Amino acid sequence: MRRSKRKLKHYINELCSMARQLFPGAKARVKKPYETEDADIIVELPINWKGKTARKLDLLIQRKLDILIETGYDIVVFVEKPNRRKDGGNKARKAKTSATR
Length: 101
Hints:
The chain is of the alpha+beta class. The protein has helices at 5-22, 54-71, and strands at residues 27-31, 39-44, 75-80, 98-100.
């Protein structure tokens, strides 16, 4: 199976788009991978997020796993809830972030 950067970018864009559809108002950004994965996507939920995340996260995980099985691309998706982020100048320590692996 031949892997290309163009195909990887396609799948990253697909997951980012899906995340924005599942979590309206969320920001999806791509970070440099930490270890052996091909890409890391951070989904930052909006400050006023009050919705549930479990079922929506399951859909995102399922698509990420389908991509891994079909293509071999290992794309990690982090969903960061507003209460898990630093507030402006507040130096409080970040709590754990949900990740799909």
